[in-house]
């Protein structure tokens, strides 16, 4: 008897110990499993990478009244905190803590204040993207300065529009960059604080003075993002060949796979990318409406073989070719002609991560003496080693305009490209899949089954079963009464 009692007590203690241990582990570690197809309740890889790379503590204060529904924001803040212990948060009621609200200049419920060191950012009813942008801005030691070259018919980044790139500007500003225009024609040099220069599809030639300004910028290790317009040819392409060894061939890339998928053979699709930080683990399809092709310039001299070379970043498929029969493209009758057209794959995008090639260009007339002296010094040291410059080149500008940047993986590729140029590799990753509208299409028979089975058949079957049971019970009682 005593032995059985002791075994029962011991078993109970073991069960209690196991339950306590499981409870302690559950309290220290949060397990989640997101079964949604677009990972709606998980953080994107971009957010995870940014939070893991935090270099200082970040504290978020969310001001919500009990009636304003803070649960969604609380869940989001909890996901952020789970990625890095340096990210902490609290949810407070502005009516119960009015002094705290006034101290942080909060005037409306639903405001989240993200604090890092002595800097802070305020946002209203945040989603994942806005909260991440606030964290990036609050932790940025200095604001990245991005300038967009103007004066040659380039793509407009200020105003929204199908052919403009306002979403590109928004992408940069959301990540803490200062974006503004620069006119090379009236500048002696690109300001020293400029971190990145954007050249977006110029339609007119550059003056010699402007090319000299670009020379000085890349010679000091400046970062460059260039998107060319396939329909226009300017002397900027000659400059790109001289300084980076990059050539854009005449013609347009035709993609038969794109014609099958989207009905437009002039929009090549890309699923193959170089193995480098921008496209590491990048498996999304990108598309380039009306794109040309890029090549590395052939070495004409023996010394040119030792010069730095551009490398392919984005590649078209093997089913593509470079069509030079423009009239045939317009009429829709273009086809691959052996010996005339060039067979793919091609570079749709290229990158350069070396010192720029030396230039022999002479200073343009009319510049200040200090500028001419700078040019003379650069030309005199053409053979010496220059700082490494990062540059990206694309043979199409449409893929980053408002009409196309959100299609496929275009936005992810552009974001990764900009972060690589700005040396923010910690933010290079791929966003989670976007929500996709799913429609349920049923046949008439399926609609009838869904309508009548729960409304008529199931209740009718239950009624029949109840009647059968009642009749059997009545007959059973009658039989027992007859025996009695």
Provide a compact summary of the structure.
By secondary structure, this protein is α/β, with parallel strands linked by helices.
Features:
single chain, 484 residues, alpha/beta, Glutaredoxin, Rossmann fold, 3 domains, 9-stranded mixed beta sheet, 4-stranded mixed beta sheet, 13 helices, ABC_transp_unknown
Helix content bin: 25-40%
**Measured distance between first and last alpha carbons:** 51 Å
User: Which strand-content bin applies to the residues?
Assistant: 15-25%
What's the CATH topology name of the largest domain? Rossmann fold
Low-confidence stretches: 364-373, 375-383
Q: What CATH first level of the largest domain would be assigned?
A: Alpha Beta
Strand order of the largest sheet: 6-5-7-8-18-17-14-11-12
Estimate nothing, just give the exact number of structural domains.
3
Average pLDDT score: 83
Domain ABC-type uncharacterised transport system: 145-404
Keywords: Membrane, Transmembrane, Transmembrane helix
InterPro entries: ABC_transp_unknown, DUF7088
Pfam families: ABC_transp_aux, DUF7088
Describe the structure.
The protein is α/β, with parallel strands linked by helices and 484 residues long. The protein has 3 domains: 45-138, Glutaredoxin, CATH 3.40.30; 144-361 and 386-427, 3-Layer(aba) Sandwich (Rossmann fold), CATH 3.40.50.880; 442-466. It has helices at 2-28, 45-52, 71-83, 98-103, 128-139, 166-174, 208-219, 236-244, 256-262, 326-331, 369-380, 410-421, 444-483, and strands spanning 58-63, 87-92, 111-116, 119-124, 144-149, 177-182, 196-200, 224-227, 246-249, 252-255, 269-273, 286-287, 293-296, 311-316, 320-323, 342-343, 347-354, 389-394. The radius of gyration is 32 Å and the shape is extended. The model is unreliable at 364-373 and 375-383 (pLDDT under 50). Keywords: Membrane, Transmembrane, Transmembrane helix. The chain crosses the membrane at residues 449-471. This is ABC-type uncharacterized transport system domain-containing protein.
